Amino acid sequence: MPHRVVVLALDGLLPFELGIPQRIFGLARPLEQQNRARKLYDVVTCSVRPPGPVHTDSDFSIMVEHGPEALATADTVVVPASYELGPVYDEGRLTDELAAAFRHIRPGTRMVSICTGSYVLAAAGFLDGRPATTHWASADHFQRLFPGIRVDPDVLFIDDGDVLTSAGVAAGIDLCLHMVRRDHGTAVANDVARRTVVPPHRDGGQAQYIQRPVPDNRFATTTTARAWALDRLERPILLRDMAQQESMSVRTFTRRFREEVGVSPVQWLTQQRVELARRLLESTDLSIDQVARDAGFGTSTSLRQHLQTALGVSPTVYRRTFRSTAGRSA
User: What is the pTM (predicted TM-score) of this model?
Assistant: First the structure.
């Protein structure tokens, strides 16, 4: 049976964020051609009331066909943001309607929030003593209202096992793609990303909000250098080599690169090599030493250190986890 995802639609919801789980999970399919018609997730939307209209923050309402009883069928519950949380936002407590709805949720259900949906999970007690994030603009208020939660305002999402929280709006896409990757492997998540026309991976630890000017398109960008580097990640790449691709000095290139990408060229190269190593670990039987060489880390020791820093696991553990996951999704 497909994994059942139930999305809780609350009054004042943001239509964009409500649609994220439907789009990302709804597109996930096995990669084998003979199994492409099989859904990996069954996604339904419910309200805290009997089936009927739920109004949004826009000039239209949506018709929800399931009541709160649908929460009892969920393997994963997703709570998108709402601008009308009332006492949840003001006092940190559930309304009677929400409390009654949450009583349908089975123990062990995976709980997920997008943006300020984290207030609902917090008020229900799911985040007590845990790390969590929310939209950067609400982070200080969220921390004051729920002092027992370890709020990190600087990340796109936090995966704490059976409870996951994301930052605002588009970070919900990153979180849902991460969940597909965790459940079924990188290849399936990348397939969903391609069909949705979004970047396949933004690491959860990436900054939510980088206060920098938008690059002036009248000036040269670093696009060519990045494409050049991606074609030769297995080789040594010096900063001056990348700068030469754009006919810039190293100083100008470094400044322009940080303005456009948000991290230094060295940090970006490491991120790309980690991502390549992940794909190789999941999709090939290459030795750890060969993966390290092909991803540009040179040695298995260097690969192990970088993977541990980025993901908190060794290459062997990562391969064992995700190769077995991919096998279960086939």
Answer: 0.73
Three-state secondary structure string covering 256-299: HHHHHHCCCHHHHHHHHHHHHHHHHHHHCCCCHHHHHHHCCCCC
Instruction: Categorise residue 108: left if φ over 0, alpha if ψ from -120 to 50, beta otherwise.
Output: left
**Measured distance CA(283)–CA(103) in Å, rounded:** 41
The CA-CA-CA angle for residues 129, 135, 140, to 5°, reads: 60
Rounded to the nearest integer, the mean pLDDT of the chain is 90
What's residue 278's pLDDT? 87
In terms of phi and psi (left: phi > 0; alpha: psi -120 to 50; beta: otherwise), the region of 320 is alpha
If one counts every other C-beta atom within 10 angstroms of the C-beta of residue 79, the result is 28
CA atoms of 248 and 258, how far apart (whole Å) = 14
User: Is 60 exceeded by the pLDDT of residue 105?
Assistant: yes
For the chain, the maximum distance between any two Cα atoms, rounded to a whole number of angstroms, is 64
Contact 66, 47 (CB under 8 A): yes
Residue 106: exposure state from Cβ atoms within 10 A (0-12, 13-18, ≥19): exposed
Q: How many CA atoms lie within 13 Å of 100's alpha carbon, on the beta-carbon side?
A: 10
Overall residue count recorded for the chain in this entry: 330
What's the rounded Cα separation, in Å, for the pair 158 and 113? 10
pLDDT of residue 205 exceeding 80, the answer is: no
More confident residue, 267 or 203: 267
